[in-house]
Give the backbone structure.
Amino acid sequence: MLNITVENLGNIKRADIELGKFTIFAGANNSGKTYINYMLYALIDKRYVLRSELYEKYIKEAKENGISEIDLPSFVDNHFLKLKSKLEKSFSHILDRFFSAEDGTFKNFALDIKYEIDSIRNRLVKINFNHELSIGKNKVIFEINKESDSDKLILIIQDNSLPNDIYLDFINEVMFKVLFSNLHNDVFLLPAERTGINLFFQELNSYRNSLINNLQKTKINPLEVLKDMMVSKYPQPIADYIEFLNNTSTLKKHKSALCDINDSLRKKILKGKYNIARDGSISFMPYKKQFKGNKENFQNKIDLHLSSSTVKTFFSLEFYIEHLAKEGSYLIIDEPELNLHPDNQRNIARILSMLVNRGVNVIISTHSDYIIRELNNLIMLSNDFSKKNELMQKYGYSEVEILKAEDVQAYVVNEGTVEKMEIAKEGIIATTFDDVVNSLNNSSDDIYYTMLESDDDE
């Protein structure tokens, strides 16, 4: 898992964050939760380059002799901290562009990724892999091999006629993945703006196509204009989300091994399923009230813009579970409670827990007391106690939804700070919500009883 310290991220002065299998950020509006989600998205998705000249001597030796060896324990001891520092600085330089902010906005940002040298060294000795650089389909020019329980990394150059930079780029890429493997995962982010983007991404495409056609009549470079008008106006996660929507017709050809989880999402929340046409347009097919056995029966298709707000919002999550989700990947959601009735906020908490139990690392930012309280129910049910099974049956809980306390990390973001919330056997101690609920109860009681006293006086 990932354990980091960040400083000067927007209005967040400092944050010590350890990601769990399920990580929750709660807090007031405008506190910086989205900044954290975007930063984690960039970090996990490798939006930076780590290039070192440390490998030049090994490339030179392999080009001369056909083979070279790197002693991994010695390499880690001598170079890992330097490479880590270079990675952290490289990452900090991308944030202005990533957030689509003015140059220098994140000039004071600092990142520290926590690693234990001993664990890195031991992991590298145990693993095995083989990476090949090829020209065309069959001609391998460069191999990087590592056998399990060996401390040697073997470089084999079969064609030494190419420029050194080609070999250097390849070994830099391989070694980055090997040394910093926890930063190399598939990650999918659902932004808070997803409802509107789901509706209007095709209109954006039509506008861009029309603009291209007009610009082609002049000497203006249409691609540069589009880059300035469209891409640069969005933070990178938003631009990536729009690109995802543009590619759903292709992405839907793959089926996720976790797609069965969508049964809960469709039956409990959506009450139907989506349809994607060849042109990428999205419609929704509501279930008929009666099922015939296990067979799904649908009403007529409804264009997405005519469907409910919940249906508009949850297309991307349903698509992710159906086609993209896989063990080890990351799912980041800004406000999973968007457009949901409190009962369905509880249901989405259960569905996210099912994903966690199937190996997906989930990160959410939320304002929902209902989600936190439902997660607490799932954590409490991970304990052994009498009549537990009776309660699970009574309230419709299943084993696949139960959440272990040790799999959860929770933080409250407030006034420039990120504080870790305690997680006990009764769940997340979320005082940020408890204080508001208590204040509301107190004010309601005070108003009610004062009103009664006034009636009695009359």
Observations:
- Residues 248-325 form one domain.
